[in-house]
């Protein structure tokens, strides 16, 4: 039972870490394109 609980907890931690990693990558791309990040939306970035 402990192994199953440990597996679920580790999977949740890995998922949450992946979400934060992707959000940071999105913010970096937005700023590199000259935009501003408002919440999770990039505003004012140059397309292309």
UniProtKB/TrEMBL annotation:
<protein>
    <submittedName>
        <fullName>Uncharacterized protein</fullName>
    </submittedName>
</protein>
């Amino acid at each position: 039972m402990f192994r199953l609980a440990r597996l679920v907890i580790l999977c949740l931690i890995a998922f949450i870490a992946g979400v934060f990693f992707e959000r940071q990558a999105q913010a970096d791309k937005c700023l590199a394109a000259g935009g501003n990040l408002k919440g999770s939306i990039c505003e004012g970035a140059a397309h292309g």
